[in-house]
Fold this protein.
Amino acid sequence: MVFYEEDRRARQSLTHTIAYTYRGLFELAIILRRNDYWDVLLTANERLLRRLEIKGKLAAGFDHEWKECADYVCLTGCAQLAGIWMRLYRRFADVRFLNGALKALDLVKNTQILDSPYPGINGGVAGSFPVWGSYIRFGYPNWAAKFLLDGLLYAQDCVKELQSEPPQSTWRLPADVPRGEALEVTGRTRKHLRVVLLSVPYSTKGYEIGTALLQHNVHPEAVVLDTSLTQGFKKHSTNCLAQDPGGFYEPW
């Protein structure tokens, strides 16, 4: 599916229109009971998911060989794909898709306008990131915010389900990937997983993660703190220590 004739000739498409197509295939697979559509959906979206995981963002467009054909992000497409990935997660209990969806939503959320002196765009989501990208250049389409809101509401439900009843994933390690622990494959062994926690001084999130690790009987071997960012977290740290003086976190 493409909106523009030049894209059709170039065999390329925006993530916005890619997402429309895959949402349609998703619904058709259910209505028509076409299992072959699921293979197409999973293969294609795994490619997109991998791009997001590796690069930390998703290019606005791809060609028919999955090569990037844009140097900006289509925020609408990111939010739409997050919705599709959460639907795939729910259907196949594959937490990779939920993980990717939450990252895609974070990417869009981090660009949302919240404190502009121009109240008309507060709460808005640009068409592109950076805002001068080709999709709705310098504009804030209402459907971008709509798809972000859809995704956030859907993510809230998915996370609640995950917390109450973790799914039994249908995903399996490919046959050509070694089953042994990575260190065992190289001829070395290790009795337990070694964890190092990277955080910043006075980080509330670092405190929460450390506490959760201890609750699951996972004891980090070290805590690495980036001291280049300190002042913004000091107040939060003080509050955490006041609530739990014997907790995991200390302002090292």
